[in-house]
Specification:
Elements (H helix, E strand, L loop, with lengths): L1 H35 L5 E5 L2 E8 L4 E5 L7 H4 L10 E5 L17 H14 L6 E5 L1 H12 L6 E5 L21 H9 L2 H7 L1 H9 L20 H22 L9 E6 L7 H4 L10 E6 L6 H4 L1 H15 L4
Parallel strand pairs: 3-4, 3-5, 5-6, 6-7, 7-8
Antiparallel strand pairs: 1-2, 2-4
């Protein structure tokens, strides 16, 4: 019995040692990443949370909202430089990039929509064209439904529009219900797992297009390795279905111009379920499908996306 207790104690000590070593490695990695990729814009306080954003140019405003696990560098990598003639604002959603999140409940779509509306008010943006990518598309739709006077139109890039019946394999590790477990995984296993699976993840989110070699830095991919980023991404993921089913049945309420651009090669969200299924639900819908394009449309085909945004801006900001 005494020998068994010694073995158990030794194993417990080993587990604690490995966990502590992984936590130290995670903290060291996060600091190195933040030194390499510091904040690139300014900050504004929204409801007690510090929000990171960048802006450039003059003209009608385009407000860019990124997707799950992303941050504003997903847009500044290739797209924003192609949008001359517009006042372009890209933000880090709360919990992402360098923006804070005060409460896990703020991950819900309705709360993220309220945040977008509050950001627009705080920055005194004049009813922008709201651009949402992936999960950011669901947030943009929620904003249009709950705060229609805050914006003039929607331009959605590979958006999440309907509840997913199956979890894409690369997202299964995010399905953690317990906040404590999310935090534990973020500080121990998340970085080694991400490094091990990075090629498969890049193939999924960019495929069939090739991921750019500078995505980890210029595109901000490395920021997703930080423990707090994993925690926020898992929290976002677990919150999606709280509001999305109820949101789906309201799309007919949208009277503003709405555009959707989807790649038919998207390996994350099916263009038929999340794009074509919107036809007939929204009166002023403009649906554009691009053969063979993957999920990260704003990086893989920035010129095509810029043309799409200009077209939607023309419909949104047209006189009368």
């Amino acid at each position: 019995m005494q020998a068994l207790l010694l073995i158990v104690a030794a194993l417990l000590g080993l587990v604690l040692f490995v966990g502590a070593a992984l936590a130290l490695f995670a903290g060291w990695t996060a600091k190195r990443i933040e030194r390499t990729l510091p904040p690139s814009g300014g900050f504004v306080e929204i409801d007690g949370a510090r929000v990171h954003y960048v802006e450039r140019g003059e003209g009608p405003t385009l407000l860019l909202v990124h997707g799950l696990g992303g941050q504003l560098r997903n847009f500044t990598h290739s797209l924003t430089e192609r949008l001359d003639g517009f006042h372009v604002v890209a933000l880090d959603r709360p919990g992402s990039g360098y923006s804070d999140r005060q409460d896990d409940a703020n991950a819900r779509l309705t709360r993220q929509a309220a945040f977008v509306a509050a950001f627009i008010a705080a920055k005194k943006l004049d009813r922008p064209l709201l651009v949402g990518h992936s999960l950011g598309g669901a947030v943009a739709l929620a904003t249009a439904l709950d705060h229609p006077r805050s914006i003039s139109g929607l331009a959605l890039l590979a958006p999440l529009t309907h509840q997913q019946t199956e979890i894409p394999p690369i997202f299964r590790g995010l399905a953690i219900a317990s906040p404590t477990m999310r935090r534990l995984v973020g500080w121990t296993l998340a970085i080694p797992a991400s490094l091990r699976n990075r090629d498969a993840v890049m193939a999924a989110i960019f495929g069939p297009n090739a991921p750019p070699r500078d995505f980890p830095t210029r595109g901000g991919g490395l920021l997703g390795l930080r423990p707090k980023s994993f925690y926020a991404t898992s929290t976002d993921f677990m919150a999606i279905n709280h509001d999305l089913p109820a949101q789906e049945v309201r799309y007919a309420e949208l009277a503003m111009p709405v555009g959707i651009l989807f790649g038919t090669g998207d390996r994350i969200l099916d263009h038929r379920r999340h794009g074509e299924a919107m036809a007939g639900k929204i009166a002023r819908l403009e649906l554009e499908l691009v053969d063979g394009l993957g999920h990260m449309v704003q990086i893989s085909e920035p010129d095509r996306v810029a043309l799409f945004l200009r077209k939607m801006a023309g419909k949104t900001f047209a006189p009368g």
